[in-house]
Amino acid sequence: VKLAESGGGSVQAGGSLRLSCLASDDQYSNRCVGWFRQTPGMEREGVASLNTDGSTLYEDSVRGRFTISKDNEKNIVFLQMDSLKPEDSAMYYCAVRSWWEGETSLDRFQYDIWGQGTQVTVSS
User: Among candidates 122, 48, 50, which has minimal Cα distance to 86?
Assistant: First the structure.
C-alpha cells in the first residue's frame, strides 16, 4: 500500500487547512491511522489518530483545534486544522498501523506504513 498526503501550504495564524491522505487500497477500513508532524532537528510526534471503532487521540496542543476523520469508501484520511499557530508549522505525515488491531495510539513506533509528507507553514 502507498500513502499520499496533500493539502499542505502556507497560511496566516488563525487560518485553516485540511490535509488529505489517499491510500492505494482499503488499508484504512480496518486499521488505526494517524497524523504526525516533524520539524528539523526534532523527533516526529503524533498529532492525531483514529481507530476502527471510532476512538480518537489528539496531542494536547492540538486538541480542540484539529479533527481527524476518514472516508472509507474513498480510502482517504483527513486532518482538519483550525486556529493554526506558528508552532504548528512542520512536515505532516500520515501513517497506518497495519500489523496490530489494538488500542488507538500516537506512538510513531507502532506505525509501519508512511506517506512522504506535506509541508505546513503558519506565519504570525
Answer: 122
Name the 3-class secondary structure at 27: helix
**CA–CA distance from 16 to each of 85, 113, 114, 124 (Å)?**
10, 27, 24, 13
- Would you tell me how many other CB atoms lie within 10 Å of the CB of residue 35? 27
Number of Cβ within a 10 Å radius of residue 41: 5
DSSP state of 44: -
pLDDT at 28 over 90: no
User: Each residue of 58-96: pLDDT tens digit?
Assistant: 999 999 999 999 998 889 999 999 999 999 999 999 999
Length of the chain counted residue by residue: 124
| Cα separation, 104 vs 12, whole angstroms | 31
Q: Strand 9-12 to strand 118-123: parallel, antiparallel, or no bridges (unpaired)?
A: parallel
- Within its chain, how far is the Cα of 31 from the centroid? 14
User: Cα-flanking dihedrals φ and ψ of residue 32, to 5°?
Assistant: -75, 135
Per-residue 3-state assignment (H helix, E strand, C coil) for 69-90: EEECCCCEEEEEECCCCHHHCE
